[in-house]
User: What shape does this take?
Amino acid sequence: MSKTLSKPTIAKAALNGHGTNGTAKKAERIPVMKTYKIFIGGKFPRTESGRYYQVKGSDGKPLANICRSSRKDVRDAVIAARGAVSGWAGRSAFNRGQILYRIGEMLEGRRAQFVHEIMLHGGTREHAEARVSAAIDRWIHYAGWCDKYQAVFSSVNPTNSSHFNFSVQEPTGVVGIMAPEGSALLGLVSMIAPVIAGGNTCIVAASESMPLPAVTFTEVLATSDLPGGVVNLLTGYRKELLKPLVTHMDINAVVVDAATKEERVMLETEATCNLKRVVYPKVTDWNKEEGQSPYFILDTQEVKTTWHPIERGQGGGGGIEPWFHAQALRYFGLVFLMFSNEHSPIHVHVRYGSYESVIELIIRDGKLEGVVFRKLSNKRALPPAQQREAEQFVRAKGKDIMRKWNDYFVLHKQVAPERITKRINR
Assistant: This one.
């Protein structure tokens, strides 16, 4: 009887992910999910709370980990924004326009990434391309308005006396912004651009459900010429960020998109804590022409009206006062000045060479009770020795200073400079 021989079967075993021949077994790669950080003071810290949430795409799959900001993050952002106000508002309008235009150039260079992220949130390529183009164009629109809105909205006012009177726009300071929920990029830039074009700084709460383009936008800001702290962006839940923004005492205004009836009641109640301005943009669709206007710049501006006396020159002709301050007193190198565009509280500027400080006079019942020194942001403060000498002089000559102040600002008289040559007894 014949026997049939069969070929023996060799069993294959995997050893710690390797085949029996020592080669690596190919496994499916796990992608690295990005954690999008917040943006405060030109840096990208993680949220103080350590919390995060996952934002999902149109297919329901997680896209990224998003920081869930807290009240402490709002406070940190306000500190950064307040520290940047004087420097940003102090820049020339032309320079602010240059910086905003540079940001527009960088947005153009990153357009592919913005298109991709809008598509991740559910938009078609055609929709995403149109929204990114509109966002860049809108940013450039406000860059052009930086050095023009003052000429359009300021005014020279008629008076019934010998004064030159004019009104100009000034930034209100630190502004809180609640960005549109359904317009990830275009609505965001439409609310930020007019605020900073007018010299304000801001804290922005990004869209809760579509935050990716907002955080990428801050990456553009971080590598542009924009000073740190001018724009600060927080991600997280709207209900957790709205109240801290409106109740913070160092925020001067809040701009809130699509506020519900309940939110408006809360905003208008809490804003009374420091008479904060609350703005509701009257925009139904940020994609349309109604989403851009120079009047949006005025929403976070305050009007400053200044009076200048007009003096009569030789020969009877009239002219505008050729100085902006009156030298009230001179005292051994110290010059005491009163500026004609500053009315209250009663104070004098004190110069000593290139140093300058402000002394405010505390008056009660017509008597000088004390003085307070205030530092100017663009000047070096008086040295300690000159501060002591200036304070001693003001306390001794308080009545003379108050009289000159009344003559200059109330009676609109010219104040003749007076030189004191005798030292005050110590």
Notes: The longest helix spans residues 125-145. The chain has twelve helices and 18 strands. Residues 12-18, 312-324 have pLDDT under 50 and may be disordered.
